[in-house]
Write a structure and sequence with these properties.
4 copies of one chain form a homotetramer. In chain A, helix 4 packs across helix 7 and helix 7 packs parallel to helix 8. Chain A is built from 13 helices and 20 strands. In chain A, the strands form 3 sheets. In chain A, strands 8, 9, 10, 11, 12, 13, 14, 15 and 16 form a 9-stranded parallel sheet that branches. In chain A, strand 14, helix 8 and strand 15 form a beta-alpha-beta unit. With 474 residues, chain A is of the alpha/beta class. Chain A is globular and about 70 Å long. Chains in contact: A-B, A-C, B-D, C-D. At the A-B interface, strand 3, strand 5, helix 8, helix 10 and helix 13 of A face strand 3, strand 5, helix 8, helix 10 and helix 13 of B. Strand 5 of chain A pairs antiparallel with strand 5 of chain B.
């Protein structure tokens, strides 16, 4: 009988700080040893491969209830299968409250959707849309203690947005409890105003979605969120930053010593507003998300922001709305103005290959930065580290084995989500995850998902220690 | 016979990205295993302790020849013993050329000073003071191939300074060869002008040293060095940044996407210009270094720059000039004007405890940031990673075991350098390295240096990969 | 019979661009000639004096109806007499709407208050608190055509504040009509939140007024107002800027090419938050205004902002609340928490002497800058130029003759307002207006107000040309 | 006999602060009256015209001795005739020292070139290329007392450049004497380095001139000059700013409260680096000047810098090198590499029409800003105000009467300089000066130069008052 249940041999391991050659000994689903010449009951040969921490996708929407809009194409089964196929072993979807709902009930309902379906592990962020007394005084503090230690708030969307006072209450509670607040920063009133102008002028096509929310709208809300956080001296994280102007606000805040964290997404690295203006006009709807993709100059700055550490997290903001299906963007939106088209693009599976290819393979970021952005940093920011997000003794054996030379052209038919398109169709990637382990189980083998439904577990999150500046390698 | 020569058991290991509990198995001087329940011929109990990568002091002056000024009190024996006692297992002193000298000869001479004396490992930076054809065309490229892959240049000091054209030639060579250039950035002409004015006005005391080189002098040269690097698209590293204004230039450059790296030192975190104005007037000379310590507001910004990643390296700039000895600051400088007093303060042993105490124990930076600043980042920037600067399979077993609760009041009599004072006398630190290993050998035991003279080895440096932005966890 | 009704002889005339010696010939209340050796029926000897355009105080509160708070001590008689005594010949008070009121009715009511009382000329800004359909669709466009071409909006104060959408509607209307919007920029929700915290903690004294609205609150709203203006590409003017942070937002906006204008007030040049903490605790209430005075460092930056043209206007924000009277701050506020104390300080008479003394006499700004800030720029920004705000052929003969050497210690008993205190008590000024003319009439002679009640006329304002960048000497 | 020698009737007068309708009475060459219904011996009807202060071209090269390069095509006769035809009534050419020359002698020699030839007035800037003891200790202080109160220094050009120490000595002398220093800010070593690389690579055509001095070269030197001025607390003026990056340095400095002034030129508003790459390759040489024209984005920022007051002066930097003539760019440069082609473009006549047309007529700047940039500001900065640069009682009657509707297409054959080309060939201007007076004499009538040779007078300059921030309408 060997010492380990499974051994990954001969690979090149990378963490957020180091790259080295070693074998990994896995026992009871955890990393039990890093060393040389380890032996195990089961051996995976990783010679010539990169052995990386499985990705954490810290911003995904999965099977959210229809009440907020239309049905999502991915449930926890298809969503987590797609995640795993893309090298991601932990997802953090949103348990989304709508006004009038009990937050505790929302969480319980959401658990039911995940139970028995997920193939990799998951934690929940909360979305707080109703900061009423019951939520703020009882439910939320209790949920934080129960391991739901992060929540997103919206500064836009009619049915979700909080006003400044509500943001302050949320931030203040986060400060008291040590929870982390994620902020969707766009100015609601500007968007509404511009949307009305465009519709009145008959400008209803998908491309006007980008026109209706120019970068200044994002910059304003980003500055405001940061100012409110500065006012209360509390850390926050700005999600899905799309533009140089918003990014600059984060950089300025950090330079002043504020603890402001930033996330961006592949859509701001690989898409532009021009994608919303495709020949067949409605095709552009495939690329509608908020904030919208910008132009090439902004793309370039966002890449810089990854390299120079303005951003801490690269997430997908996976929003699984189909294009053609019964609840698809086309059915819902084709005869409707742009503001009725469901917002968001799918990307849970393509997130890591796109960043690896455009970032590491093309020399824009180091392998360490890749690991930090996609796994270690989100684990730290959301209280999952060191259980998740790294390869270290005692950590869960969530591991993605990458072939850094493998060339794959993204095409929707090869993806595992349940959405009928990908906005990245046709992009060729250099580097792809070939074998993926979750708590020591092989969940992807030779690019095939082999995980059993329901094996994924819910993760209680610790409170991050946002009071401590620097947060490790951030 | 056990598998490992030595095992460190029960400690909490920290790297630049992670903290975890594990045993370390050491074999042949290298880290051979990280795991649980490891056994070895020799076991060090690290229960309740932090097990960190040994520090790399990437900016020290040891036994430089007298020709550039006065004799240094530390040779490689006392210098490396002091380093080891302070948790540092690699030092990077300067092989310093003066004008007219062969660089190759300088390196050979310097090797003789280190051979047989050093107790921990060392690599050499070069100082280029004469960028003549022989140096630039032959010696320097050959030395880079031989493992001397970094060099410092001075924008000030009459006998060392290079003009812009010479800086460009150096930067250009660094670009071609992949070497790293360190820049001492102060405007020579401003300092000379102001010094003349002060001396003409009879203002000769130590405190006028700080007056003669105000922050704008550092800011100007920093901006100039960065601009020259931008002009050539080459990474550089600004050493010993002392002021918020210079630091801001680095931050601006990064925000623009430039690969500019920054170093600061404990003297800018713990001393101020007021220290140069002590009652017994000449006592102030103990605190003279260049750039000079600034004020409290600048100190605070420098601390912020560590936390927010504007700085990549914390080095000591150890300059072992005695105060009372035959070559001391007092003998040389007491009857002379401030500009004749030897520049620099000792600090090779106190560097890590000061940063640990003021940074980690007081909550200003994370433990990961401490490791990154003091070990991992310099290893990466100067081509020693992953051999040095981390705890990973295959790395040299250079390890410092810290007692994070141990309280030590710094007093010169307890230090191991050969200098007769420390500028940090009386500061109480929380956290101190108690056991230190170099390539698996115990060199410090219970705070006693037990290393044998001459066991330290010279390290050839790889070329860093400065063309790749982000450089890992930086 | 001489050519001119009145001649001012021998003085040194200054405009916003020039200083020169000349006689001024006045006919029919207008400047008819500038020349040498002019003769007139009445001659004023200005030898050794400065002859400046009469000041325009573009931000004053006079006799606003009690419904918004408590009674104001100054009506148009005392307010304009005080203005004249301080060298100001045009005031621009606010016709203030409260929610539910007809704007047209507000204007008519306000006219009645001015009619027959004012001793110098006046124009009205509007305050829009209710941007309803009647106001936006009919009343306001009509009023703009009728010569009420500027309006102030509030981002704070419960009964006045507009939300972002309302700001956008106002800005949009300003863009269509060419009117100018003035913005009181403080974040209402932050102030309310902090006020509640302070009151709950029993911190009710006047000094907590400053604590309840720190600079970040002003910075946030300033950035937001600028962003909304950028979104719509329309010029706006930020009033009573008190802090370096808010000022910096204006400077950044201008650097980007936006047409953002700025106003500051003497209280931010001569008072600090320490004034709110006087020994006899409630005395501090005398200095309560919003935004509150900051610290010395902010004062210094505000002075710089005058010199470097970040600010275009220096106004008084005269708020004539008495201290001891029946409607005074003391009666209303002494037993109440700080947030119930009437906001604002008097200053219509001291504005020009304070700026002249601290600015021109002490060498911080030029005489031209003084004229620009206090007369020419507001005339241009609010559509009164060249009728008001300069000394040029055809302009109204609104002229203040200053003795630049005259030393006057400010003391409330010598002021002409109806308020029972001045926050500037005891400040010695160098330079004071000795003779003041309004449309050629001597309204102040040897510092005595000699004007007849009711001679002041209402001024219809032209639309400024905010679409044209640079606006003259701004 | 009428009161005035000459009267300009019915025009619209503009100063840097005001626009108004008035007649101008001229007596003894000075403005004696502004008024209505003035009568004079000679009457000029300006109905429908703009009556502006004659322009001051504060940066022109006229008939500089050949020793510095090649012969200039314009002497004081053609140069001032061309100036006058373009609405300029004062020029400020450079008396240029070369190393080893007596500055006093240089001035005397230069006077001889002007005497008897100039048709409008002129003052001299000095160029200091040799800051030796005689110059600094004796000649320059004496010349400043004699009315030569401004000097330019070069940070580039082998035969003219000063090092930092020399700049400090010059700035220090300016501080002591109240003189104004103009700085040509480009980094000499960068240009030399890049030029060598280009020539070694065989890249010798005119277009490589722009490649050899990219914006970072200008930014670096601008920051350095500003830092040296900050170090000494002395005002300086950065001439011919071409790029957004350099301009930003000026804006940052002002925001910090430094007294840094800026000048730009029409070539940076109307030309781009693309002009250096014309089809017939050598044609590009016509557009060679230093710094070189940049791209459209930089042009746009330079226009913004005029509107937002980052720039104080718009000068021509007229450099009258012919293209085809015996000393022309072609003869000298066609078979030579780009760095041998004479630097500079002609523009003394087109400066004002280009700015008027592109700025005032197209709505980018106000008429007041036009007057300030082209006349009033340079008069103030160089000690000629209020004698020159405005229309005020007592000022010289230097007046340009503009037809704001007149459309003129620039073509070299219609210009009055002695250069055989204009870089602005074919640009259509809206607005042109039709009548020009110098000290009351008509020097241009109906666009014809009617001035007698030698009538122009030398102007002693006062010291500006650079210690006073704000300098009037700047």
């Amino acid at each position: 009988m060997s010492e380990f249940d499974r051994v990954i041999k001969g690979g090149t391991i990378a963490t957020a700080s180091d790259t080295f050659s070693a074998d990994i000994g896995i026992k009871d689903g955890r990393v039990a040893a890093l060393g040389e010449n380890l032996s195990g009951d089961d051996v995976i040969d990783a010679t010539g491969k990169l052995v990386l921490p499985g990705g954490i996708d810290a911003h995904v929407h999965i099977d959210q209830p229809k009440k907020g809009g239309i049905a999502m194409a991915d449930d926890f089964r298809s969503g987590t299968r797609s995640a795993a196929a893309g090298g991601t072993t932990t997802i953090m979807p949103f348990a989304c409250q709508y006004r009038g709902e009990s937050l505790r009930q929302v969480v319980e309902d959401y658990h039911k959707k995940a139970d028995g379906k997920a193939v990799v592990d998951y934690a929940f962020h909360l979305i707080i849309a109703d900061a009423n007394e019951q939520v703020m005084g009882q439910e939320l503090p209790a949920l934080i203690e129960d391991g739901y230690t992060s929540f997103k708030i919206y500064m836009t969307y009619p049915d979700l947005k909080l006003n400044d006072r509500e943001c302050l209450e949320i931030f203040s509670l986060a400060r008291r409890t040590g929870a982390m607040t994620m902020v969707h920063a766009e100015n609601a009133d500007c968007i509404e105003w511009m949307t009305e102008q465009l519709l009145m002028a008959g400008k209803t096509g998908p491309k006007y979605h980008a026109v209706s929310r120019p970068p200044v709208v994002e910059k304003e809300a980003t500055h405001r969120a940061i100012s409110l956080a500065e006012f209360l001296d509390v850390p926050i994280l700005i999600v899905h930053v799309s533009s140089a102007e918003a990014m600059e606000q984060i950089a300025i805040a950090r330079q002043k010593g504020l603890r402001i964290y930033g996330e961006t997404c592949p859509q701001y690295l690989f898409l532009t507003a021009d994608d919303l203006e495709l020949d067949d006009e409605f095709e552009g709807a495939k690329y509608i998300c908020s904030p919208p993709p910008r132009d090439k100059a902004n793309q370039e700055k966002i890449w810089q922001g990854l390299a120079n550490s303005t951003f801490d997290v690269l997430a997908s903001d996976h929003a699984p709305y189909s294009f053609d299906g019964p609840d698809g963007k086309k059915v819902v939106g084709e005869d409707a103005p742009f503001n009725k088209i469901p917002n968001g693009v799918p990307g849970i599976e393509t997130r890591l290959p796109l960043l690896f290819s455009g970032g590491v393979s093309e020399g824009r970021i180091s392998l360490q930065k890749f690991v930090a952005l996609t796994a270690t940093n989100p684990a730290k920011l959301y209280g999952l580290h060191p259980r998740k997000g790294t390869i270290a003794i005692g950590s869960d054996a969530d591991i993605a084995i990458w072939d850094p030379e493998k060339k794959v052209t993204i095409t929707n038919e090869n993806l595992h989500h349940n959405v009928d398109y990908t906005p990245y169709e046709g992009i060729e990637c250099t580097g792809w995850p070939v074998t993926v382990l979750s708590r020591g189980d092989v969940v992807v083998q030779d690019c095939e998902v082999v995980a059993s439904e329901g094996r994924g577990q819910f993760l209680r999150c610790d409170k991050p220690d946002p009071a401590r500046p620097g947060m490790g390698t951030l």
